[in-house]
Amino acid sequence: MTAAGANARIGRIGLYVLLIWTCLFFSIPLLVVIATSLKSSDEVRAFSIFSLPTEPSFAAWIKAWFAACTGLNCGGVHVGFWNSVRILIPSVAISVMAGSVTGYALSHWRVRGANIIMLFLLLGAFIPYQVILYPLVKMFSTIGIYSSLPCIVAVHVLFGLPVMSLLFRNFYAGLPEELVKAARIDGAGFWRIFVWVMLPLSVNILIVATILQTTGIWNDYLLGLIFAGRDNMPMTVQLNAISTTSTGVIEYNVNTAAALLTALPPLLIYFTSGRYFVRGITAGAVKG
Amino acid sequence: MSTVSVSKLSKSFGPLRVLQDIDLAVEAGEFTVLLGPSGCGKSTLLNAIAGLEDTDGGIIEIGGEDVTQREPSKRGIAMVFQSYALYPTMTARSNLSFGLRVKSVPKREVQRRVEWAASLLQINELLDRKPSQMSGGQRQRVAIGRALVQQAKVFLFDEPLSNLDAKLRTEMRVELKRLHKELGATIIYVTHDQIEAMTLATRIAVMRGGRIEQYAAPDNLYEQPATLFVAGFVGSPAMNFLSAELIGGTVPAARCGSTVFPLNSYPFRASPNDSRNIVVGIRPEHITLARPGSTEHTIEVETLFMEPMGADTLGWFQFAEQRIAARLPPQQARSIDGRARLALALDHISLFDPASEARL
Question: Cα Rg for chain B, rounded, in angstroms?
Fold first, then answer.
C-alpha cells in the first residue's frame, strides 16, 4: 500500500470515528429518556440515569397512558391525546384546503391587489405570534368562543394560512400557465380548474402541507394552553402539567413515558412519509 | 369556419405598448400566420383574440359578432399551445373530452367526436395513455385533437411546433397543412419561424414592436416587402442591402459606388425625388456570376468564402463596406476565387427609404 493510500485510509477512519461520536452525543438525551421510561421507579432513583434498565418493562408507559395525574385528575395522557386529535383534524384540513385555494388564486388568477396580499402573507408568516396573543384573546372573548374547540381550531387555521398559502402559491406558480389557459378555453371556471386540473397535480404538495401542519399543530403548546380551554387541553399541555406536578414523589419513568407518547405521532409521520416530503419539496418542476 | 376581424386593438403592460392599434382581417377558411421576432406582440395578439388577455381598447369580432368582452369559452375558438398544455393527470381520451364534458355534451356525441379526431390525427392507440407516456410529437397531436373536438369556428395555434425537433417539425407542418385543407377551418397561427410561415400561410402578418408591418400573401411578402424590416426578416439568408444614391430625371437610376443601375422598370409607389440616399434590396438568388466580358448591371466584389448547401452554394462577397450573399450553382461557385464580377437581376430588386424604412 502506498503512503498516500494509507493516509487516505487513516483520514477515512478519523471521519467515521467523529461521525459516530457525534451521533452518540446527540442521541444521548433520547436514549436516556427511552431507558428511563422502561425502568421501575425504584431503579430510576437507585442508579445513574445512564444505566440501562435491568428489567425493562412497559409498566410506566401504561401508567402514563391511563393513569398519570395532572393535579387531581388521574386519567393519563390518553385524554390529551384525543383532545389533540380533535384539534388536529379540523385545523389541518381547513388550513391546508384554504391555503391551496389561496395559493392557486394568487398564482394563476389576476387578483386585484395580489401583491399587497402577498406582502401581508409574508408578514403573517414571519411575525412572532406572541406579539398578537393578547388582541386575539380579546377578540375571541368578544365574539364569545374563547376557550373552546372552535377557538383553538380557528387560531391554528389563522396561524397556518400564511405559510400554507405561500407554499401552495410557489408550487402552483411552477405549473405552466398554459394549463389554466387551456382549461379556460375548454370552458372550465375557477373551481372546476382547481378541482379537476390543479388538485390532481397537487398530491405531493398536499402531503407536504399536511405533514408540516400536523407536526406544527401537534407540537404546539402555547396556543393550546391559551386558547383551547380546560376541556380541550392538547397532549402537550397535559404533558407539561404531569411533569410539573409537585405533590408526592416525582415518577420520572412515567414522565418520560408520557413525553415519548406525546412525541410519537410526529416521529411516526416523519419516518413513514419522509420520502414524500423530499419529493414534494422538490416537486416545483412538474412536467407533463 | 368563420371570419375574424380585429380593429384598433391596443394593449399596454405599464409603459410598454405591446399592441398598437392593430387592424387585422382574416377571411373564412384562411390560414393567417402572425410572424415576428420574440417580443413583437404576436402571442399577445393571439391571446387577446382568444380572450385570455384583457385589452385596453379596440374590437374583436369572430363570425361577425363582437366578442371583445366574452369569456374564452364563449368565443367559438379552440387553441393549441407551445407547451401542449395537456392535463398531466388525464389520459389522452380525457384530455380530448374534458372541454366537451365541461359543456355537458351528451356522452355519445363526446365519444363520436373523440373517435373522429383520433382517427383524423392517427392517435387511436394513444387514447388510453397519459401525456407522460407519449413523445413530444404524440403530445402535440393530442393537443391538436383537443382543439379539433371543440368543432370551433376558429383555431388558434401558439407556436405549436417550436418544441419539436427539426424532422418532426417538418412532418407536423405537412400534417397541419393537410388538416387545414381537409377541414377548411379558419386558422390563426403564431410563429417566429419564417419557413413555417411561408409554407403554411395563405396570408402572413409580419409584426414588429406591437404593429403589423405588412399583411400579405407569402409570395407577395417575399417578392415585394413593404418595409426594410419585412425584407430583412423574411428570407434566409436575408436580403442583401446596398446603400445607393437615387438619381432622378426621365430615367431614374441608382448609383452604387462606381456602378449606375437604371431603374426604369421599377414600379415606384410615388415618383422618386432627386438625389437622395436609398437602400437597394436584392435577394441572394437574384445575384449571379456575370458572364465574362459583360459589365452591364454588375458590381465588382472580393470573394470571402463559400458555404456549400447541397442544392446550391452560398457565396459571400465583400462589396465596398457591405457583405453580400449570393445563391450560386455549386459547379460555378467552385471556380470563383479572389475578385469576381456579379450581375444583379434588376427586375427583382426592392428600394427602400432608409429614413422611413418604407418601400419606395
Answer: 24
Q: What is the CATH number of the domain that holds B210?
A: 3.40.50.300
List, in sequence order, the alpha helices (H) in A54-173. Answer: 59-66, 78-108, 114-126, 133-143, 149-173
Would you state the pLDDT for residue B207?
95
pLDDT value at residue A285: 38
| pLDDT tier, B292 (very low <50, low <70, confident <90, very high otherwise) | confident
For residues B299 and B326, give the distance between their C-alpha atoms in angstroms, rounded to a whole number.
Answer: 12
Same domain for B105 and B191, yes or no, is: yes
The total of other beta-carbon atoms located within 10 Å of residue A139's CB is: 14
Domain co-membership, B22 together with B70: yes
Percent of chain A with pLDDT over 70: 94
Is A184 close to B52, i.e. CB distance below 8 A? yes
Clarify whether residues B187 and B254 are in a common domain.
Answer: no
Residue among A188, A201, A288 minimizing CB distance to B102: A188
Q: Which residue of B has its CA nearest to A180?
A: B85
CATH number assigned to the domain covering A78-281? 1.10.3720.10
Rounded to 10 degrees, the C-alpha dihedral A96/A98/A104/A110 comes to -160
Q: How many domains does chain B have?
A: 2
Q: Match 410526529 to its residue by C-alpha cell.
A: A266
Domain boundary residue, one of B175, B198, B228: B228
- Chain A contacts of B77, Cβ < 8 Å? 185
* Whole-angstrom Cα Rg for chain A: 24
Mutation pick from A108, A110, A186, A206 vs chain B, by most beta carbons of B within 10 Å, is: A186
Find chain A residues with C-beta within 8 A of B139's C-beta: 288
Task: Please tell me which of the candidates A178, A188, A286 has its beta carbon nearest to residue B85.
Answer: A178
Question: What is the pTM assigned to this prediction?
Answer: 0.82
**Mutation target among B102, B104, B110, B162 for the A interface, most CBs of A within 10 A:** B102
Task: Check B73 against A200: CB less than 8 A apart.
Answer: no
**Average predicted confidence (pLDDT) for chain A:** 88
Instruction: Give the pLDDT confidence score for residue B338 in this predicted structure.
Output: 84
Q: What sign has the CA pseudo-torsion B83, B85, B88, B93?
A: negative
Q: Do the domain assignments include residue B322?
A: yes
B223 and B344 both lie in a single domain? no
Residue of A nearest to B104 (CA): A187
Grid cell of B36 as nine digits: 415576428
The contacts of residue A211 (CB under 8 Å, 6+ apart) are: A269, A270, A273, A276, A277
- Note the pLDDT tens digit of each residue in A61-116: 999 998 888 777 788 899 999 999 999 999 999 999 999 999 999 999 888 888 89
Q: To which residue does cell 398519570 refer? A: A68
What's the pLDDT band for B18 if we cut at 50, 70, 90? very high
Are A178 and B82 within 8 A, CB to CB? yes
Of all residues in chain B, the one with the smallest CA distance to A176 is B85
Which residues, including other chains, have CB under 8 Å from residue B8's CB and lie 6 or more apart? B21, B22, B23, B57, B58, B59
Which residue in B78, B85, B150 is closest to A176 by CB distance? B85
Q: Which positions 229-268 of B are in contact with A (Cβ < 8 Å)?
A: none
Could you tell me the residue ranges of all domains in chain A? 3-66, 78-281
Q: Which domain holds residue B47?
A: 4-228
Using the Cβ of B81 and the Cβ atoms of chain A, whether some distance falls under 8 Å is answered with yes
Q: What is the ipTM of this complex?
A: 0.83
Nearest one of A87, A42, A41, A90 to A68, comparing CA atoms: A41
- At residue B189, φ and ψ (nearest 5 deg) are -135, 125
